[in-house]
Amino acid sequence: MLPLDGGGKLLAEPVMVSLGHKDGTTVVDPKEVFKAAFRAGADAIIVAHSHPSGNLTPSKADLHLTEELKSRAEWLGLEFIDHIILGPPDSAKGLDFLSLAETLP
Fold first, then answer.
1. FRET label pair with 10: which of 16, 33, 45, 62, CA 20 to 30 Å apart?
2. Nearest Cα to 79, choosing from 14, 16, 34?
3. Residue 90's pLDDT band (boundaries 50, 70, 90)?
4. Domain containing 65: what range?
């Protein structure tokens, strides 16, 4: 999670709120995301996670988490800017990523 001020400036180092499991799944507790955001004094947040396989297609869980975080952020008075899925670096393309803010309505 990236905590940002109202002008989009990064307030602190990115905060890891969850680690992936051996089976490739990750459980993210929205309480932990927002606890870290408020601790940093954030007015806005960006969340990100990786898909080491290189397949950047969001899973149903990714889409559900995005909607849940957006809804809770709005209720808490925080701006939810984006949920970014990162792929492995590619020497030809550089860092590959997918912005859910750009792909979802």
1. 62
2. 34
3. confident
4. 2-103
Domain count within the chain: 1
- Give the integer Cα–Cα distance in Å for 79 and 81: 6
Q: How many CA atoms lie within 13 A of 84 on its CB side?
A: 13
What gap in Å lies between CA 16 and CA 66, rounded to an integer? 16
For residue 66, which amino acid is it? T
pLDDT in tens, 21-72: 555 566 788 999 999 999 999 999 999 998 888 899 999 989 999 999 999 9
Which CATH number characterizes residue 80's domain?
3.40.140.10
The first and second tokens of residue 91, run together, are 């020497």
Residue 41 three-state SS: coil
23: region left, alpha or beta (phi > 0 left; psi from -120 to 50 alpha): alpha
| 19 has pLDDT over 70 | no
